[in-house]
Design a protein that fits this description.
There is one protein chain. By secondary structure, this protein is α/β, with parallel strands linked by helices. The protein has two domains: 5-168, 3-Layer(aba) Sandwich (Rossmann fold); 188-292, 2-Layer Sandwich (GMP Synthetase, Chain A, domain 3). The chain has ten helices and nine strands. The chain has helices spanning 19-27, 71-84, 101-113, 133-143, 161-168, 188-203, 208-211, 237-244, 249-266, 286-289; strands at 5-13, 45-50, 54-60, 89-95, 117-122, 148-151, 213-221, 225-234, 269-278. The strands form two sheets. Strands 2-3-1-4-5-6 form a six-stranded mixed sheet, with helices on both faces. The chain has a three-stranded mixed sheet with strand order 7-8-9. Strand 4, helix 3 (101-113) and strand 5 form a beta-alpha-beta unit. Helix 6 packs antiparallel against helix 9. The radius of gyration is 20 Å and the shape is globular. The protein binds guanosine-5'-triphosphate and magnesium ion.
Length: 294
């Protein structure tokens, strides 16, 4: 029998650098929600890429943000850092044109994990003059003994083959840990709540994304229809009014965008009902925040 290789690679980085975009590009699927707002990802999400002799299990993690003192942020950081202990290699993502204290902090954490680290410098589409790239690469090289450094654009690159090859080289010889037809380890309720949350983040502004979490109240599967009820939780009445919008227009737009995405994912008609409810200060409530722990 020919040899097989299988293992875990964590995708880590500062908030908003493009980890989930890269995760989706590597898996060639939209599994993890991505938005222009920092700290979109809240859970460690595993995606499975089964190739001919390699099975790559990618772990998308919440972005590291320092300076946010709320309890939920502690949980998100701890989720991301815990992933470092459980993987065969680390894929650190940074923005090609910006390296700051948060990247630096994360690199010290990554160093301590003592695993091979591949650095991806993302968003190279922002660099218009390619001669700027060489000094950036040299600077990155001086920061740490990375296994490899790859400048890419997670958003625009059509193929991820070279990065996939680099990652596959890090996998130990092992039998496959997941069936080959599985692409990720989350259930429908998780997908639904994330799609609605993603849609809400995209429709709303400024601080509100952090104030939201979504909860699937009920899903009913019929032959050609899925009926779904989702609660959008916020922290204050004033936020509830914003999410609902004038005459319910915002909430309608959120639901409409989410419904279209869900119909695409499930290949069925979807009836989606959304409610907005208030749970004071949930971001600091232990019992609620606990659900985001891995
Ligand atoms: N220009 C450009 N934008 C990108 C690229 N990759 C990702 N983005 C954008 O960067 C933003 C953040 O992307 P995400 O994938 O959500 O980032 P993330 O690191 O997962 O963010 P968190 O989960 O919040 O930590 C989105 O608006 C993406 O469209 C890229 O290659 N080029
Ligand atoms: Mg993300």
């Amino acid at each position: 029998m020919s040899k097989t290789y299988c293992g875990f690679v964590a995708i880590v980085g500062r908030a908003n650098v493009g980890k989930s975009t890269l995760f989706n590009a590597l898996l060639d699927r939209r599994l993890s929600i991505t938005t222009h707002k920092p700290q979109t990802t809240r859970h460690n999400i595993r995606g499975v890429l089964s190739l001919q002799s390699h099975q790559l299990i990618l772990v998308d993690t919440p972005g590291i943000q320092l300076g946010n003192k709320r309890l939920i942020n502690k949980v998100l950081i701890s989720n991301a850092l815990s992933a470092l202990q459980e993987v065969d290699a680390i894929l650190m993502v940074a923005e090609v044109d910006r390296w700051n204290d948060e990247d630096e902090y994360l690199l010290t954490q990554v160093e301590q994990a003592n695993r091979p680290v591949i650095l991806v410098l993302n968003k190279i589409d922002r660099i218009k003059n390619k001669s700027e790239l060489l000094p950036i690469l040299n600077e990155a090289k001086s920061r740490y003994d990375f296994e490899d450094i790859l400048p890419i654009s997670a958003l625009h690159d059509k193929r991820m083959d070279s990065l996939i090859n680099v990652l596959c080289k890090q996998l130990p010889e092992s039998m496959y840990l997941f069936p080959e037809d599985i692409t990720w380890d989350r259930d429908d309720n998780f997908v639904i709540s994330e799609i609605v949350r993603g849609s809400a983040i995209k429709q709303l502004h400024k601080e509100l994304p952090y104030a939201i979490y979504t909860e699937v109240e009920n899903v009913k599967y019929d032959d050609d229809l899925i009926s779904i009820n989702v609660i959008i939780w916020v922290e204050k009445d004033s936020q509830k009014a914003i999410v609902i919008g004038k005459k319910g227009s915002k909430l309608k737009a959120i639901g409409e965008q989410a419904r279209i995405q869900l119909e695409r994912i499930f290949s069925k008609k979807v009836m989606l009902k959304t409610w907005v409810k208030v749970k004071q200060n949930w971001q600091d409530q232990q019992d609620i925040v606990a659900q985001f722990e891995n």
